[in-house]
Design goal:
Arc Repressor Mutant, subunit A, 2 strands, 17 helices
């Protein structure tokens, strides 16, 4: 789970089109129209928001290290990949940041606390200091616990049974990695720092390993929620697509057949902001039609230029178009490609 290799893979995807900071914004999960569109456009949405606590100074130092290793040339925040060594993305196949980033940490925090509670009760030690201090997580786990309040033995046995079945679907290494983080009676779960020392991996490598294993677990639970009926309670019911709160408001108006100018007036926002929202919606909502804004002929012309130039740079694309298509229309047409690779 080499974090540098992951960053290198993402740099290859955006080379010549974006600065290396765009990869940082992707990993952080920046809620901007540009980053969200890039996640779809470059086919990297599975990496979106997988490292929300990554600090820019740390990321910059990693980029400098890559430059010192001869992997990239740096010119400010621009870069050039020196040797495009083929790196398989298979180790990261389980990452699903765009879909799971809003609740993956919430899921694992609940799991940590529920595992601790069941272990304590199983050892006749119902009084304990919660390993998770988030009050909302505590309330959520308490609500689930109260569903079994008349028979605590059932929830203890069910959690053990479901975790056993889930771990059987993971690799042995993944199962050990997750179980080492669980807290039980007279046992404190290991921190990332301890895991880093034990596995002789960097903190960043441990974080990515954690995320990809966590997303694999969530996928398995969602895919068979009857088998994992207790663990499924730790996963919140979410909408079928992810939008920033402001874009969702614009989407609601579009569904009521408001024009961009009408939305701009009622929301007291700039037209560029509303256009950003529309691009975000087009990138995120599968059945959203861009036809009110881009004709089929326009779309074909734009996509033909993109294919010819093999670029995602808006100005270069616009300079080759003959019908005065706007940057907004170009961006919308680009969302139809999902990925141009």
């Amino acid at each position: 789970m080499d974090f540098i290799k992951l960053v290198y893979t993402l740099l290859i995807k955006v080379e010549g089109q974006r600065s290396y900071r765009s990869v940082y914004h992707l990993l952080k999960g920046k809620k901007s129209a540009q980053t969200i569109q890039d996640a779809h456009l470059f086919g990297v949405k599975n990496y979106f928001a997988i490292y929300p606590k990554l600090h820019i100074d740390v990321f910059d130092s990693i980029i400098v290290e890559m430059s010192n290793q001869g992997l990239i040339n740096l010119e400010g925040t621009n870069f050039q990949v020196i040797s495009k060594t083929s790196i398989s993305e298979k180790p990261y196949a389980n990452l699903n940041g765009y879909e799971y980033h809003t609740y993956d940490e919430w899921f694992f925090s609940q799991l940590l606390l529920l595992a601790q509670a069941t272990s304590q009760h199983a050892h006749q030690s119902p009084r304990f200091i919660p390993i998770v201090d988030d009050i909302q997580v505590q309330h959520s786990v308490k609500r689930i616990w109260n569903m079994y309040k008349n028979n605590e033995k059932v929830i203890i046995e069910q959690l053990y049974s479901e975790l056993h079945r889930l771990f059987e679907l993971l690799t042995q290494e993944e199962a050990n990695f997750i179980s080492m983080q669980l807290t039980g009676n007279k046992h404190i779960g290991w921190s990332f720092t301890q895991l880093s020392e034990y596995y002789h991996l960097s903190y960043h490598d441990i974080h990515i390993w954690y995320k990809q294993t966590l997303h694999k677990m969530i996928h398995l639970i969602k895919d068979s929620n009857q088998t994992f009926s207790l663990l499924a309670l730790l996963i919140p019911v979410t909408s079928e697509f992810n939008l920033t709160s402001s874009a969702r408001k614009t989407y609601n108006y579009l569904q009521k057949n408001y024009s961009i100018n009408q939305i701009m007036a009622v929301r007291n926002l700039k037209i560029s902001t509303i256009e950003d929202h529309v691009v975000e919606i087009a990138s995120s909502v599968d059945d959203f039609s861009i036809r009110p804004f881009v004709t089929e002929e326009m779309e074909q012309d734009i996509l033909a230029v993109i294919s010819k130039l093999n670029t995602r740079k808006l100005k270069e694309i616009k300079d080759q178009l003959t019908n005065n298509e706007s940057y907004f229309q170009i961006r919308l047409a680009m969302t139809c490609t999902n990925s141009l690779d």
